């Protein structure tokens, strides 16, 4: 994620947890009045009261065994949790493993075909999560003879980020077939995302609609600037709007570029340019530009993998800290 993203290890504002817990408590109280015989409701009410007590005494978010911080993503998903990963019971560990396996299966089914050929365009992508699941969202959607392409990077990491990725997938697969102008599409998507996620959640996004004539209408909502590659020249599409999820009434400006046959558009998430080698140097945009110039005569379907291979060679013994997705789109000759 970009520098705008909060650390995945930092706990959100306790006030948000308090508001969520009080809201859940109110709903449980109402449920208890309707079905007083259900013991599960009483148990959950006791756990919520205990969590509110931890918020009051400052121990909320600390493992009950080792007193280290509980993983922030897990705490966001379940504010009642009291154990870090190192101190889960065997049954809890097995349940978590099952949840992760299910998350991987769900996320895999949401990915588009690795190679798409439509309306005079060839497109391809590679997608490599830093952990079991990823917060990167990539998609190709056909509408009215045009190809809509999307690449987003949601805040956070792990399962929580993968759930947000799934949320974006549902939003765009509902809105894109409606044939809305790109500005309206993004404004609607942003409002839905804002109203259905926590305030700390957002997503940088690069979205475009490629027509058979070679025109590509694009919007860069706070995302890494994509590269437009023409012969030996490269240019970038700078951000022109805020990421999705910042403000419900945000407006999204677009621009239109024209690609000639053989021209290529390369999109990526910041896990690529911010990849570090063993000495702490980052891969950077300049090296990426040099790499794509050397790929001019390669099929565009090979570009994402060849770029990622170069990043891997650069990183060598350096550790990977972020998800990486690379997408390439070329107008056919």
Protein described:
With 333 residues, the protein is an alpha+beta fold. It has two domains: 14-88, Four Helix Bundle (Hemerythrin (Met), subunit A) (Up-down Bundle), CATH 1.20.120.910; 113-331, PPM-type phosphatase domain (Phosphatase 2c, domain 1, 4-Layer Sandwich), CATH 3.60.40. The chain has nine helices and eleven strands. The protein has helices spanning 14-34, 39-57, 72-77, 90-110, 158-175, 182-195, 270-273, 284-293, 303-315; strands at residues 115-118, 121-128, 136-143, 146-154, 203-210, 215-221, 227-230, 233-236, 255-258, 264-268, 324-331. Strands 1-2-11-10-7-8 form a six-stranded antiparallel sheet. A five-stranded antiparallel sheet has the order 3-4-5-6-9, with helices on one face.
Features:
333 residues; alpha+beta; Four Helix Bundle (Hemerythrin (Met), subunit A); Phosphatase 2c, domain 1; 2 domains; six-stranded antiparallel sheet; five-stranded antiparallel sheet; 9 helices; disordered N terminus
Oligomer: single chain
Gyration radius from CA atoms, angstroms? 22 Å
List the uncertain runs: 2-9
CATH class of the largest domain, named Alpha Beta
Strands ordered across the widest β-sheet:
1-2-11-10-7-8
| Structure class | alpha+beta
* CATH architecture verdict of the largest domain: 4-Layer Sandwich
Number of domains: 2
User: What do we call the CATH topology of the largest domain?
Assistant: Phosphatase 2c, domain 1
The biggest beta sheet is recorded as: 6 strands, antiparallel
What amount of the residues lies in strands?
15-25%
Helical residue percent band:
25-40%
CATH superfamily of the largest domain: PPM-type phosphatase domain
Mean pLDDT across residues? 87
Q: How many helical elements?
A: 9
Q: What's the number of extended β-strand segments?
A: 11
Distance between the termini: 35 Å
- Could you give the order of the helices and strands? HHHHEEEEHHEEEEEEHHHE
Describe the global form. globular
């Amino acid at each position: 994620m970009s520098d705008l993203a909060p650390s995945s290890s930092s706990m959100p504002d306790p006030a948000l947890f308090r508001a969520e817990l009080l809201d859940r408590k109110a709903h449980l109280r109402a449920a208890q009045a309707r079905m007083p015989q259900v013991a599960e409701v009483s148990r959950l009410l006791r756990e919520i009261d205990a969590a509110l007590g931890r918020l009051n005494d400052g121990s909320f978010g600390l493992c009950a065994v080792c007193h280290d911080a509980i993983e922030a993503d897990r705490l966001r998903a379940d504010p009642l949790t009291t154990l870090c990963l190192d101190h889960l019971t065997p049954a809890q560990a097995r349940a978590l493993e099952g949840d992760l396996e299910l998350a991987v299966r769900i996320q895999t089914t949401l990915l588009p075909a690795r190679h798409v050929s439509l309306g005079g365009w060839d497109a391809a992508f590679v997608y490599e999560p830093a952990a079991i699941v990823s917060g990167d969202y990539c998609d190709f959607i056909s509408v009215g003879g045009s190809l809509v392409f999307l690449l987003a990077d949601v805040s956070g990491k792990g399962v929580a980020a993968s759930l947000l990725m799934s949320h974006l997938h549902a939003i765009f697969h509902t809105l894109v077939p409606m044939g809305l102008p790109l500005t309206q599409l993004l404004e609607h998507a942003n409002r839905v995302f804002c109203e259905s996620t926590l305030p700390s959640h957002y997503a940088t996004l690069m979205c475009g609609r490629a027509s058979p004539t070679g025109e590509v209408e694009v919007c860069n909502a706070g995302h890494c600037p994509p590269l437009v590659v023409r012969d030996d020249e490269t240019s970038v599409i700078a951000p022109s709007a805020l990421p999705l999820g910042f403000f419900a009434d945000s407006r999204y400006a677009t621009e239109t570029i024209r690609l000639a046959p053989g021209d290529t558009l390369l999109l990526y998430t910041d896990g690529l340019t911010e990849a570090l080698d063993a000495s702490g140097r980052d891969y950077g945009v300049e090296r990426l530009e040099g790499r794509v110039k050397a790929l001019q005569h390669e099929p565009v379907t090979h570009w994402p993998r060849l770029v990622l291979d170069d990043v891997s060679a650069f990183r060598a013994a350096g550790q990977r800290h972020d998800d990486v997705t690379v997408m390439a789109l070329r107008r056919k000759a």
